[in-house]
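Quick one - inputs below.
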Amino acid sequence: MFEDALKPLPEKAFDYFAAVHLLNRAGFGGTPSQARALADMGLNKAVDQLVKYESQPVEPVKADLFDNSIMSPLTDEQRETARKARLSNDEEALAALQRERNRKQSEDRKQIAQLQKWWIKRMIETPRPLEEKMTLFFHGHFATGYRTIEDSFHMYQQNQLFRKFATGNFAHLAHRIIRDPAMIKYLDNDENQKSKPNENMARELMELFTLGEGRGYTEDDIKAGARALTGYTFKDDTFYFNNNNHDTSAKNIMGKSGQFDGDGFLDVILARNECAEFMAGKLFRFFVNDFSGDMSKDQKAFILAMANKLRASKYELKPLLDAVFSSAYFYSAQNRGAIIKSPIQLTVQAVRSLRTPVRELSALASATDLMGQNVFFPPNVKGWDGGRSWINTSTLFIRQNVLVYLLTGRKPDMYEWQASDIPFDATHLVDHLRQPDGSVDMASGIEYLLRFNLAQSPSPLRLKQVMAFATSRGERLDNDRIIAVLALTTAMPEYQLC
Amino acid sequence: MSEHNIPYSRRLFMRHGVALASMATTIPQFIQNSALGMVAQLAGNPGGAGLPQDRILVVVQLGGGNDGLNTVIPFGMNEYYNARPTIGIPAPSGTAKGQTGVALMLDQKRGLGLNPSLKGLKSLYDDGKLAVLQGVGYPNPNRSHFTSMDIWQTANTGAKGNGWIGRYFDNTCNGTPIQEGSISIGRTAPLALNGQVQKPISFESAELFRWLGKDLHKSLDDPYQQINRAGILPETTQTSQAAFLMRTALDAQLGSDRIRAAVGKPSLTTWPQSEIANQLRIVSALIRDGMPTRVYYVSQSGYDTHGGQLGSHGRALQQVGDALAAFQKELAAQHAEDRVVTMVFSEFGRRVKQNASGGTDHGTAAPMFVIGSKVKAGVHGDHSSLTDLDQGDLKFKQDFRGVYANILDEWLKAPSAKILGGTFSKSSIIKA
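Output:
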């Protein structure tokens, strides 16, 4: 009965701006010529190119890209030295140990900053935007924060795990995440022992990662789940199952009983209908519409259809994503411009779609932090709330000003960003509108720039305002004028939508 | 719920009836602007709950772990001088070593003084406006800056969840955030202000609270203003994300005008020169302007004093002490003293024993300060023992969540148990 909700868009309805919509949502936008190429492929091939991205060659991630030794645990010898120093209250030795700890931590903070820049750069440059977009989705879904775990290499490992499973199998990823050192540390599962169970991971696993708050489980299920997860810990950079700390006794979890371990516990959860529905709902908000207020009837029907698809594919994500991006509903007017861009989306999409200079990666990292999305530092285990919570009177100015920086290289006076004088050649944005003499008609150029950037047809009032400005400055739509028009367009409230 | 949590169009409706409210979406923007400008003016006048005569909390965060033992000096305890042979601050009656000077007398009988650099705080104490809370901390102390700061900001010993001030708003605003309910002066807003519904705004300087595009060319300013002050465009669905953004854009322009004008106005008193003084000066200007803000948050760093701390610690203390005294003077000149309470904290204190580099390493409990004319001035609680230690660190006497509880219950009149997720023994700091 839900098949209808996912019915595909008629091939001929996949026009240029539908391709722009697909590029924005399934990735981080593209240039006018990329959108043209995608539109020319037709819907099926276009969706395939984005979803089945394995055919797109990508720069492999080198194994030694980040240093895994900065925060490695103390050797037995070092531990013994520290123990002795504490016992004898050897001030000097203790101070030396503290200094060494501080040195390691400060080096590790430098590495996490490198990691942030590396990821933002990858999102900007990748030929597989959906791979990075789903990695970002899972970073927000299985939120783990550097502040708590203080180990940049573990954050990197987790990031790679999300990339590997980006459009893979969600159930398989869930089985991997309970073995992920960063997650284990973040949710205290390294302290979850048979003799004193720690419920943190079991609770968040059900509440935030799979079922949704209060959906079909009780406090007793959490307690039993925690016992199933005892002994799931890590040594240095790898998962370690501590048999001695694991509770092998029988457990009752949501009506099933057995000597569940972590995997058994997860299998019980993953078999529940609530799980596919919860994930479908989250993916809907991330890709289709991050509506505020009550869910409409057709939204609900679409989410249920997504959940069915996910169950039918045994949690394989590709068939679901393919169906969503091919559906008529995804392209319907109500779902255009229906998502408030995350700070990462805003920044990366601006660079990818306008092809502005990247300026300075550390400035972009700092900007996304100022706008409320510091990657690797989610505010808590719930991740970023998204939607309207991104926007307030101060983040709105920062959003507008980051665009001024990307377009022109001008930075706010007090920011520590590097000003940049790399020129931005924006003329490519209107190349397809050039007349035989090389000129671009002002009115059609401006209308196109607004339509391309605003996710929806611009309001006549906005068009009039920008036209009045542009014509007052001369007759040619040259590079400077395009940039001025872009400065105004990106300062429009609607520009925050995609 | 105050009127301030309500979108402009509804606020206009409540105050001025249908005629004006309808303007927010349909009337040409120049008329609308003048109408809204008028309302922005009106909002500055005292009115119902949530309006300016309401109480304000200012939070001052000392980042890095302030050395409590060299802030409030237990000169009556010999162990203090044994533990700190070269960095101990001499008793008020003692002999100054080098340039540091002797402790300022706080309480002769209890043997307590203030760091000699805290002349500003001492003046507040003498005026009966300073409460010194001794030995504030929490169980199973964490010595990581990040984690301990998160514990203080979330009021959760697992360092998890939303900020405690964010939860204060969440619990009192009926599900609609209060625009400019909390303001942080700084680069990014602290976790403490982050709620489920309520999100803080933050800016480093009022000059950054505006669009920089007009610096490119002055001709851009007019169209920019038209675009961002237009409010909700006629063809836009009221409940849509676009409408929400258009409304916020208009709020941002009005907020920007107001904040920049307020901060640009000369203060009533003179201020010392320092970063923390500048932050507090901005706060005082916003209070004077009658912003609807209930909580302001400022911070100073530089307290991670692992080596050669006497000079650097003294400088940091002097800056914050002088700034707090200047802030209180400015509030008095504004006749706003009775509406403002200021709370000063750090993520942890430092070890009792000085280290081999003339500094101190990460520790546990430390004093807090609460300032204001409505504060029960004096020293609260007993100093932590310097002999009964936990791995060389002070044991706490007062859980910081009890201090929050007191401020929430007695000052902000909010249900602390609900906000903090439990009850904590409180020392009573606010005058009835």
